[in-house]
Amino acid sequence: MLMKNFIVQLPRGLQARHTALFVRKVSSFKSEVILSKSEVILSKSGKVANGKDIMKIMDLVIKEGDEITLVVHGFDEQAVMETLKNIFQTLHKYNE
Fold this sequence. Notes:
Layout (H helix, E strand, L loop, with lengths): L1 E6 L8 H12 L4 E5 L11 E3 L3 H6 L7 E7 L3 H18 L2
Antiparallel strand pairs: 1-4, 2-3, 2-4
């Protein structure tokens, strides 16, 4: 299992088009991906979403400056995490 925190640096946060790209990439892998907007991912009060569910991710209302946590578990978890890091870097550069 891999876990990585990111600070969202997109000027308008994680919008629908960004989320669609994220879900499309995550869905191409076998690993389970959990996205959390809370510091404590297993708390009852923390909001979490399946990384393959666009509506659940949109429900997190991720804004610029929010810290998100990605948890990836599965046999291709290394490839998933590298892909997701690249997506966040690319989205940030695209919106500059």
